[in-house]
Amino acid sequence: MSGTVLPSWNDGVARKAVVDFVTSAVTPGGGFVEIADRIAAFDNDGTLWSEQPLPPQFDFVFRKWGDEVAADHALAAVQPYKALVEKDNAFFARVGAQDPEVIETLLAAFARSWAGTTPAEFEAQVREWLEAVKQPKFDVPYVELVYAPMLELIKYLKDNDFRVFVCSGGGRDFMRVFAEETWGIYKENVIGTAADYSYSNGSMVRAARGLGGLDIGPGKPEHIFATTGRLPVFAGGNADVDIEMLETATFALLVDHDDDEREFAYTSNAEKSVERAKELGWTIVSVKDDWKTVFPSK
Amino acid sequence: MSGTVLPSWNDGVARKAVVDFVTSAVTPGGGFVEIADRIAAFDNDGTLWSEQPLPPQFDFVFRKWGDEVAADHALAAVQPYKALVEKDNAFFARVGAQDPEVIETLLAAFARSWAGTTPAEFEAQVREWLEAVKQPKFDVPYVELVYAPMLELIKYLKDNDFRVFVCSGGGRDFMRVFAEETWGIYKENVIGTAADYSYSNGSMVRAARGLGGLDIGPGKPEHIFATTGRLPVFAGGNADVDIEMLETATFALLVDHDDDEREFAYTSNAEKSVERAKELGWTIVSVKDDWKTVFPSK
Hints:
The structure is a homodimer. In chain A, about 40% of the residues lie in helices and about 15% in strands. Chain A has helices spanning about 15-25, 55-70, 80-85, 90-95, 100-115, 120-130, 150-160, 170-185, 220-230, 245-250, 270-280, 285-290, and strands at about 40, 165-170, 190-195, 195-200, 205-210, 235, 250-255, 285. In chain A, the strands form two sheets. A six-stranded parallel β-sheet of chain A has the order 3-2-1-6-7-8, with helices on both faces. Chain A has a two-stranded antiparallel sheet with strand order 4-5.
């Protein structure tokens, strides 16, 4: 069996920990987990796909804001458009560090940019971006930079009767556009920061307000509970904003980006999560050592 | 095939319409529905179980409020406790008619009653009520008054690769307690009016605020879209507050309560939905004529 599951994972401590946990969860005995309770939750940016130099959704959003500034130059004087025009990446990096001032500014701008949009219109915009835009380092569409070993892990969990959810700080509706074809995960299993929608006279349109809070930090278990009525048994993340989600799980996996050759090497905004992983015995996955391949072969 | 599916349904227009629609949805051709799109949504009160003389959750809530009034007599002077003490059922009937003043009063009281409760504490209270309390007309626990033909319909849809959701104006967390054993539907497929929860220091506790709006009227498609990223292909309801949900579906089914002998006969708060059903060609299900049995045999 170990030869057929997780083929992109090197034999090692991380792979063994995953297989041992799942085997124990489905085998009668002390580690057995009832099928109804088998909920797995994964962060997206940096856990399921590359998030450097910035999470891909920023590329989509920045293009939209670029168009808005071009149409109304006055916007260039106010945040977050100012940071964009001035290429002030330090401003955007403060999102990962959960700086409330930056986050509030960004959320207000997101809300304005798509308020009044129907789901079909929003999906069309995301699809256009998915097909047209390439990631700067690898020169391929962003969705090709999903991690092959994590796709295998999702499949392995599903094959063992886990219901797998993606739970990202990024946009719920953004991820839902490609969730089914990319991850094999139905839209209803995608949890993320979300705008509220209003229905009237046969139409659903995006409102300028959020539905629930930002899906990072404590927001992750809050969103997972709201969606599923449970907390996850298995969770995977890679950053400080994933700590609370990982703490709620029986089995926690933390991706350590240490492979500058095949992907990126960085520890920013993940320092606390590595400490917490050591304290609580989470499974740390080294991209360099634990993954035979990083991206799916075409 | 028609002999093995929906056995509690009489052969008739309603049963034929359901079977024809589902058969067409899974058969290559003009009526085919992609598996990913096969979302079905059902109201609960009056659609999946008896809602007379009042939706069962009111029984649970009224007992809690009764305890609160006993502990603090001053509450008896303010709504909604006043209406409860004075047995002013007209006040509570205004919920079904979506009277904003009544709804706001009730929601504020719900929020106060369970704010600070953990999911496990809330579940224990609901379980105690489920086991101890009996419905006044039938003298059995409320969950025994789920409709056998609708359980068969849920199973029939699931057997045809529909993902079935319950979408009720009632409480999400209330229904989730019995969803799996009663309907065979995982908690994550239960949509309802919900309180927000806050996570901190390893604990999830109920907040005194709602998450999203009330799940009635336009709130139903809004909640279904938020949960699933889609609108339903198949929807079932029985009341005016279900109209918007039914309008969004390709196939809409409306339960008509016309059987005072085996259940209840009433049209209150369903008048507009019957009109809309006739206008739009929805399938009307007569409890009296279309169902061989109403409740599951024990």
